């Protein structure tokens, strides 16, 4: 992207301390936005701010577990106190590991936890961000879903269900918030490599096999930058006629027909 659209706009990114969220935080901040990163991992949040402030970007970290209503209320109160309005909310935080045991072994508490973070969390953040979003001129919400909302590997029940719910939530919110002129869209990422975007203690150098890359029609695995570029577009006035939609960003893997 790069124009002046985001200059001095306020962008709140949940789960922005690492991975795709951090990639988006960097991208919005490089466009001139005030970026508030929120995350349950304080160590990662502080490191993320340190990393981005080296570029003199306008970022701050406010810790919050998005599954806890009182923490979300406190988060939005702090954002409101400092910035008065919110231009963009990115519901990105999630328990990103999709795998669990088989259905008979699965603990329902584990299922509930994933739904509480990946689906209920975005509902809570949106609910309490609304008064601040309404004060913005062109408010936008972006939900980070997954291609696993549409297709599955075995034993990914909670994750897939949470992301399917997030897809449905996206069109439901788009219609419900239309009277406030708040646009709501989603990105469904495929395989995005986040090794270089983790906190120092979890960082790793990604190594992808030829098969990893070549199973993707574009010949590679995705990056946080791939998602960030689309996020900048979807939340800007250039996407002013787009709401209730989801863009799949997966290097083409979900449209590939496989006959063995
Ligand atoms: N990486 C991929 O291949 C991929 C693919 C599809 C979808 N996604 C989705 O993209 C989003 C980001 O994934 P990622 O790969 O960057 O993961 P990540 O684990 O690198 O980052 C997720 C961040 O969310 C935070 N978080 C987790 N639970 C939280 C909570 N309760 N409250 C606040 N913060 C919390 C984590 O601390 C972490 O910093 C997730 O919603 C994930 O499901 C990722």
Q: What topology does this entry show?
A:
Layout: E1 10-14, H1 19-30, E2 34-39, H2 42-53, E3 59-63, H3 69-83, E4 88-91, H4 108-133, E5 140-144, H5 157-176, E6 183-189, H6 210-214, H7 224-234, E7 246-249
Parallel strand pairs: 1-2, 1-4, 2-3, 4-5, 5-6, 6-7
Nicotinamide-adenine-dinucleotide binds at residues 14-15, 17-21, 39-41, 44, 64-67, 92-96, 117, 121, 144, 146, 189, 191-192, 194.
Features:
binds nicotinamide-adenine-dinucleotide, 260 residues, 39% helix, alpha/beta, single chain, 7 helices, seven-stranded parallel beta sheet, Rossmann fold
Walk me through this protein's architecture.
There is one protein chain. The protein is of the alpha/beta class. It has a single domain (10-255), classed as NAD(P)-binding Rossmann-like Domain (Rossmann fold). 39% of the residues lie in helices and 14% in strands. It contains 7 helices and 7 strands; from the N terminus they run βαβαβαβαβαβααβ. It has helices at 19-30, 42-53, 69-83, 108-133, 157-176, 210-214, 224-234; strands spanning 10-14, 34-39, 59-63, 88-91, 140-144, 183-189, 246-249. It has a 7-stranded parallel β-sheet, with helices on both faces. α1 packs across α7 (224-234), α3 (69-83) packs parallel to α4 and α4 packs parallel to α5 (157-176). Bound molecules: nicotinamide-adenine-dinucleotide (NAD). Residues 14-15, 17-21, 39-41, 44, 64-67, 92-96, 117, 121, 144, 146, 189, 191-192, 194 line the site of nicotinamide-adenine-dinucleotide.
């Amino acid at each position: 992207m790069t124009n002046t659209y985001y200059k001095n706009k306020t962008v709140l990114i949940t789960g922005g301390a690492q991975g795709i969220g951090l990639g988006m935080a960097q991208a919005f901040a490089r466009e001139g936005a005030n970026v508030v990163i929120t995350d349950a991992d304080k160590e990662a949040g502080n490191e993320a701010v340190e990393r981005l402030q080296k570029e003199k970007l306008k970022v701050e970290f406010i810790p919050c577990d998005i599954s806890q209503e009182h923490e979300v209320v406190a988060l939005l109160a702090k954002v409101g106190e400092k910035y008065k309005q919110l231009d963009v909310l990115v519901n990105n935080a999630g328990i990103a590991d999709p795998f669990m045991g088989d259905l008979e072994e699965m603990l329902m508490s584990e299922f509930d936890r994933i739904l509480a973070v990946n689906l209920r969390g975005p509902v809570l953040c949106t609910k309490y961000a609304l008064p601040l979003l309404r004060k913005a001129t062109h408010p936008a919400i972006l939900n980070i879903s997954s291609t696993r909302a549409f297709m599955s590997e075995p034993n990914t029940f909670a994750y897939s269900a949470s992301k399917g719910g997030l897809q449905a939530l996206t069109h439901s919110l788009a219609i419900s918030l239309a009277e406030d002129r708040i646009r709501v869209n989603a990105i469904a990422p495929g395989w995005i490599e986040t090794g270089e975007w983790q906190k120092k203690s979890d960082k790793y150098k990604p190594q992808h096999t030829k098969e990893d890359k070549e199973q993707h029609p574009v010949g590679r695995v995705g990056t946080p930058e791939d998602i960030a570029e689309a996020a900048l577009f979807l939340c800007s006035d250039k996407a002013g006629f787009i709401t209730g939609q989801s863009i799949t960003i997966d290097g083409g893997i979900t449209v590939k027909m496989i006959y063995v």
